Amino acid sequence: MLPYLNLQAAEAGLGRELSFAEKIWFNYSANKHDFVLHSHNIIFLCFFYSLVPLPYMLVELSRSKKIMKYKVQPKVQRSFWDMFKCYKDVMKSFLIVVGPLQILSYPTINLIGIRTGLPLPSLWELLLQLGVYFLVEDYVGYWVHRWLHTKWGYENIHHVHHEYRAPIGFAAPYAHWSEILILGFPAFLGPALIPGHIITYWLWFILRQMEAIDTHSGYEFPWTKYIPFYAGAKFHDYHHYVGRQSHSNFSSVFTYGDYLYGTDKGYRCYMVLSNKKISGGVLLRKIWEWEKGLYGDGNWNMFSVYRSFDLSENRLLNIAGRWRPFFTQTARSTDGKPSCANGDTGNMKEHCRLTTFTGVDRF
Ligand SMILES: [Zn+2]
Ligand SMILES: [Zn+2]
């Protein structure tokens, strides 16, 4: 709500003529309580969530060959009812979890100083603040996502989001209710550190949601490469495909978190090698080497990575069988005793169980 009776009073208060945008804002918000303006967020959330994934859905249903070349996992095709079910589930969680959270967070929004009045922020202020919000959310979100991939975090919370091994736009906010709450923290942190105007605050959540829908869309369109450091759909798709065992690609928007902490090694190797004509065995060994450098014994994680090549089970086992001697030899620790993927030594039984799991010992 604005503390001016009319436009003239507002101009007198600011000591200048209002800009066109400010006049629109005055006419729209002058008689609305701040709580009502704050509550717009849930309307925007539902509106943009319903609207932005629609073009991706139409593309998916069209099965157009021209567009299919941009699909990251072309073998997976979703039906309308598949996507609609996801939409329904997410809308339910918006109304049950996000709506009440929005209402309850109103005093906090007031406390941190999100302003609703005049003047409106300049374009530079708006862009700068949005940039900081993206960076803060990306960095903190990276660590929260890594935590969600611990055994406890994954089994109790994050497995719901990973139900989609080939994600779709509608699945961007598809998650356990507690994950929605937890990920709210990095999203609110930017505005809490550098509070701005409520328009900036609205825009932040709208853009962040649009970005999440794009990275989950399953389509990597060429224009996304013009956004600096943008992770894009392929980057996050890899994370979903690998699934539970994934130790790669935790960043949500950009890629610097994974680059800084080395959690994109498997993915980068995959990108390099998948662009070359290279035999399956060499491919696996290379990936294994990358992963081993990061996680010690690479057997367990290697499996999760080479599954992402979408090889048939037979081909996978065939390749794994050919490399069995190599894996068996390197799975031993330096003192000559057998070791297993979890780092224990001297437990051949456990090692065999794990290598059986990876398919390496099935030949
Ligand atoms: Zn994940
Ligand atoms: Zn995801």
What features would you describe in this structure?
It contains 19 helices and no strands. With 363 residues, the chain is an all-alpha fold. The termini are far apart. It has two domains: 32-259, no CATH class; 264-358, no CATH class. The relative contact order is 0.09. It has helices at 7-14, 20-29, 34-51, 53-62, 65-68, 80-104, 106-112, 123-148, 151-158, 177-193, 198-215, 232-242, 256-260, 265-274, 280-295, 299-307, 313-322, 324-330, 348-358. Helix content is 63%, strand content 0%. The protein is elongated. The chain binds zinc ion (ZN) (2 copies). One zinc ion (ZN) binds at residues 161, 167, 216, 236, 240. The site of one zinc ion has 5 residues, from helix 12.
Which short descriptors sum up this protein?
363 residues; mainly alpha; binds zinc ion; disordered C terminus; 2 domains
Give me the strand/helix succession.
Answer: HHHHHHHHHHHHHHHHHHH
Radius of gyration using CA atoms only: 25 Å
Structural class: mainly alpha
How much helix is in the residues? 55-70%
Mean pLDDT: 77
Low-pLDDT ranges? 294-302, 323-363
Number of domains: 2
Global shape: elongated
* Major β-sheet profile: none
Number of helices: 19
| Distinct ligands | zinc ion
Tell me the strand percentage band: under 5%
DSSP E strands, number: 0
Cα(first) to Cα(last) distance is: 73 Å
Any chance you could write out the topology, listing elements then pairs?
Blueprint: H1 7-14, H2 20-29, H3 34-51, H4 53-62, H5 65-68, H6 80-104, H7 106-112, H8 123-148, H9 151-158, H10 177-193, H11 198-215, H12 232-242, H13 256-260, H14 265-274, H15 280-295, H16 299-307, H17 313-322, H18 324-330, H19 348-358
Helix pairs in contact: 3-6, 3-11, 8-10, 8-11, 14-15, 15-16, 16-19
This protein binds zinc ion (2 copies).
One zinc ion binds at residues 161, 167, 216, 236, 240.
